[in-house]
Design goal:
The complex is a heterodimer of chains A (311) and B (387). Chain A is mostly helical and 311 residues long. Helices cover 68% and strands 4% of the residues of chain A. Chain A contains eleven helices and four strands; from the N terminus they run ααββααααββααααα. In chain A, helix 4 crosses helix 11. Chain A is globular, with a radius of gyration of 24 Å. Chain B is an alpha/beta fold and 387 residues long. Chain B folds into two domains: 2-126 and 241-365, Periplasmic binding protein-like II (D-Maltodextrin-Binding Protein, domain 2); 131-237, D-Maltodextrin-Binding Protein, domain 2. Chain B has helices at 2-27, 61-68, 71-74, 90-95, 106-114, 161-169, 188-191, 205-210, 231-234, 247-252, 254-276, 278-287, 294-308, 320-332, 354-365; strands at 46-51, 77-82, 101-104, 119-123, 131-136, 151-154, 179-182, 197-201, 226-230, 242-246. The radius of gyration of chain B is 24 Å and the shape is globular. Chain B: This is Thiamine pyrimidine synthase. Chain B: InterPro entries: NMT1/THI5, SsuA/THI5. Chain B: It holds the Pfam family NMT1.
């Protein structure tokens, strides 16, 4: 029964061998990635050279940003700053180690949020697949949920959380952050999973029905495997948005320990030490990539289902 | 089947790894950022939560010093200090009962009161306003009247009323006589020359200027490079950091009334400690995990002390004249959107000296100097970037 999905679809019995192809090009992909980073750095320096320090103007309107060292510090200054101690206080860690521990904190909170959001999204998608009515009723709300600005939501979540005491369990500030991250992460997962669940062709669904397969059996043996190509990119996207959500929520709620908070703290020295906030911004961007890459690892065990991944 | 099982194992392995990573999340220090304040004392401590307006910095040194020096514990309080964030409104958090006390600026708190937040100013820690309007010295802007025809920056969000009151008092129409610019929270636009006169707090943005490099000399800017309009001198200063308590609980909860006196007393002691030991107080704040630079924090500590001391009637005392000036400006000054801070006189619950009076009496009995008449600020040298 388990293999029905693949045996039923002769046109798909020769899946593109994703694994080996990826392996052979992995080295090249890393190389391209490094080149892209170098190119970006070169572009940054080029803009600094070409655009005047005061920025570009058309008449009165500013069209290009200022490029002096205050607004756009040199790449090597940023790299150098990362290796220097954070402050002159004795025993102050380097900016690098401060950022690494901050990223580690944010990554764990974002992963917690991603997990909650993904599970929620999957359940919601299953519900919507099960009942057409639920789908028509819920989809507008799911879309609408993403138009609520995070900064309006954050204080509310903190406010509710502050009053939760169940036995010895006490709501922590980081849980509010994780919840906000999950709020962003659930959206792509819901939409991706729903499309995936609905992706098996009518012939396959009808075969299951003809054999009187229950909804659960159809879900487990047909819809779930079929949804993998849709689900993996959705989960990856969810991971990236969870990181964004965690960073914004940290700033918004004043949660200590993460990279979002570090960006704001460093930004306070933007006028005197401009390389410092840039270092934190770059770290935050890299963190999103790391989170998405971690989630792609999920795909390693599921290569067999990834015959036509929607990338 | 063989294939399927292997696939399942692969997925399971990834799942277990993820679970391990996540369980690390909940078990160690990552989640809890509360300082463990109460472990040492023997007796029952009353838990108290204090909500700050912003992240940990020397602006709140008195409270951190009171925790560190055990002043709260001596009063039987277990105080947890809750940091603020960009979207945390301390007055709202206090009014909805999540915390017991909050630090907030008077005009902002008055605006929240008018929207229904039941809060009362029980101790006015800062006696003076720390807001300046800073310009380069060569622009010759030394009073509010000199702002005529200039580009004037302000942060908005209720931070602009001293400026608008000052300009109106000097006979300027903020709408036509100056060019108003919304200002970011760093000083880059000012340094680049986009803004002639920028808003700055003595203890933060002004320091950022002195931490920045002057591209002409390659050295840091000095105080001689700038002039500042001080709203305390212009007579349009508004009261800033105060301790706010929940009005409802003050009215009918006797235990809360007692706690309030104790909390104020210990907090004032913390501020007195910060006055007498600015460098130690700075170290206490830095140890709380502030990422602001070391010299910046000491500068901030020193400037905050100047806002608090001397306090002729005793630290925390709410001066009626200063209060009335704040209320008058809040009622009458319109910003560029034509809005005032409040539309009606605040009721009698808005402030009370009842609790701070008791706290001050107890401190005087202990022989503590609560007015700081001979307070002298220290000299602080800022380093590049405040580091």
């Amino acid at each position: 029964m388990t293999d029905l999905a693949t045996t039923l679809a002769p046109e798909r019995t020769a899946p593109v061998p994703v694994g080996p192809r990826e392996r052979s090009t992995a080295g090249r992909r890393i190389l391209v990635g490094v080149l892209a980073v170098l190119l970006l750095a070169a572009l940054w320096e080029l803009v600094k050279v070409v655009v005047p320090d005061a920025g570009g103007y058309i008449g009165e309107a500013s069209v290009l940003p200022r490029t002096d060292d205050l607004a756009m510090p040199h790449v090597w200054d940023v790299v150098d700053r990362v290796l220097q101690p954070e402050t002159s206080a004795t025993g102050s860690p380097t900016v690098l180690s401060a950022m690494l521990s901050a990223c580690w904190f944010t990554l764990r909170v974002a992963l917690a949020g991603w997990l909650v959001g993904s599970i929620g999204g999957l359940l919601l998608a299953a519900l919507m697949q099960r009942w057409q009515l639920a789908e028509s009723a819920l989809v507008p709300w799911v879309v609408l949920s993403q138009t609520v600005p995070l900064i309006a939501l954050a204080p509310l979540v903190v406010g509710w959380g502050g009053r939760i005491h169940i036995g010895t369990f006490e709501w922590q500030r980081w849980m509010s952050v994780a919840l906000i991250a999950s709020y962003l992460a659930f959206f792509p997962v819901t939409i991706g999973a729903l499309r995936g669940f609905q992706s098996p062709p009518a012939a396959q669904v009808e075969l299951f029905r003809a054999q009187a397969a229950s909804w659960n059996r159809t879900m487990l043996s047909l819809r779930l495997p079929a949804s993998v190509p849709y689900l993996l990119p959705a989960l990856r996207l969810g991971a990236a948005t969870a990181v964004v959500g965690a960073i914004v929520a940290e700033v918004s709620t004043g949660t200590k320990g993460g990279i979002g908070r570090l960006i704001i703290s460093y930004a306070q020295s933007a006028s005197g030490d401009p390389a410092k906030p840039w270092a934190a911004i770059i770290a935050a961007a890299l963190l999103g990539l790391v989170a998405a890459a971690l989630v792609s690892l999920l795909g390693l065990g599921l290569g067999r289902y990834r015959y036509a991944e929607v990338r | 089947m063989r294939l399927t099982r292997r696939t399942a194992w692969g997925a399971a392995a990834v799942g277990v790894t993820a679970a391990l990573v996540l369980s690390g999340c909940s078990s160690d220090d990552g989640g809890s950022d509360e300082p463990a304040a109460s472990e040492s004392a023997g007796g029952e401590l009353t838990p108290v939560k204090l909500q700050l307006q912003w992240f940990t910095q020397a602006q709140f040194a008195g409270y951190y010093a009171a925790v560190d020096q055990g002043y709260y514990e001596e009063e039987g309080l277990d105080v947890e200090i809750v940091e603020g964030g960009t979207d945390i409104v301390p007055q709202s958090v206090l009014a909805d009962g999540s915390v017991d006390y909050a630090i907030a600026w008077v005009p902002k708190a008055l605006a929240s009161r008018e929207q229904g937040a039941g809060i009362t100013d029980v101790a006015q820690i800062f006696q003076r306003s720390g807001t300046l309007q800073v310009s380069f010295a060569d622009k010759g802007i030394t009073s509010a009247a000199d702002l005529a025809g200039k580009t004037v920056g302000n942060w908005g969000y209720g931070n602009e009323f001293e400026l608008f009151a000052g300009m109106s008092k000097a006979g300027l129409d903020p709408a036509t006589d100056v060019t108003l610019v919304q200002q970011q929270f760093d000083m880059n636009a000012f340094l680049a020359g986009d803004i002639d006169a920028a808003q700055a707090m003595t203890y933060n943005e002004y320091a950022q200027l002195l931490e920045a490099e002057n591209p002409e000399t390659g050295e840091l800017y000095t105080a001689d490079d700038f002039t500042a309009v001080n709203w305390n001198d212009e007579g349009t200063a508004m009261l800033q950091d105060a301790i706010w308590a929940n009005s409802e609980k003050l009215a009918d909860d006797e235990a809360y009334q007692e706690t309030t006196v104790k909390f104020i007393k210990a907090s004032l002691k913390g501020w007195i400690y910060a006055r007498d030991n600015p460098e130690e107080a700075r170290d206490i704040v830095v140890a709380q995990g502030s990422q602001l630079g070391n010299s910046h924090q000491l500068w901030q500590m020193n400037e905050i002390n100047k806002l608090v001391w001397p306090s002729p009637e005793g630290i925390g005392w709410i001066d009626e004249d200063a209060w009335n000036q704040t209320v008058d400006i809040a009622l009458e000054t319109k910003n560029d959107q034509g809005a005032t801070v409040i539309t009606a006189e605040p009721d009698a619950d808005a402030y009370t000296n009842e609790y701070v009076e008791k706290a001050l009496a107890e401190l005087k009995d202990e022989g503590v100097d609560v007015s700081g008449e001979d307070f002298e600020p220290i000299e602080v040298t800022l380093e590049a970037g405040g580091n």
